[in-house]
Amino acid sequence: MKIIRYQKDDQIKSGILKGETVFELEGDIFSEFSQGKEVAELDQLKLLAPVQPPNIIAIGLNYRQHAVETGAEIPERPVVFLKATSSITDPAADIILPKLAPEEVDFEAELAVIISKKAKNLETVEVEDYVLGYSCANDVSARDCQKKLDKQWARGKSFDTFCPLGPWIETDLDPNNLKIRSILNGKTMQESKTSDMIFKVEQLISYLSHNMTLLPGTVILTGTPEGVGFAREEKIFLRDGDQITIEIEGIGSLENTVSREI
Asked: What Å distances lie between residue 84 and 54, 204, 227, CA to CA?
């Protein structure tokens, strides 16, 4: 099932997408819901980020080959950081290069997990019951803030628009062996499989739940594969007018244009 969030006639609602047709979602996506009447075709609606999360929890260095390309050691436990919830942006919306740090903004294709209900101290075998579904995400990162100016990750990961999410939540998916890639202006930048993750999805959720309560709607970004711009011999950063796409097998494509802050 594909769960979307959309705007129609100045109203924002959740819906169920079947083919190219959107149906009403009756109930609450974090408890019980069902399919209602037909709303419209998808191209007649404005597609929004599928959830407004109470927290965005992200994992660094969770693909083996990404750790290799950055020269980092394989971590013994998940590397956890947070992104501001105000960084969420919609499919097809612009990623804005911020005035304070426009020159080294990088892309990161990521599988996002959306938590369905309050979770604390879960064992890995319990995790599946607490997952609503999966989406595509781009963990956009200002590398100069992250690595030179601040030497920590919060600001460089949290500028407005630095977390595109979508295009929907796919509820029926095995997350552990999916093709994932990023495409910049038609050229593939990252291409891998989620099987390269050091810590699998169920391990991540269990670990996080032992450290903090996971609230309904929490978005977990599970790490990025090799091929990011800053780790290349000739560094590649996002520029005004670029088109960046995140593709994940079984979910779809998340497409955004890049522009500069005015």
From this structure: 10, 20, 24
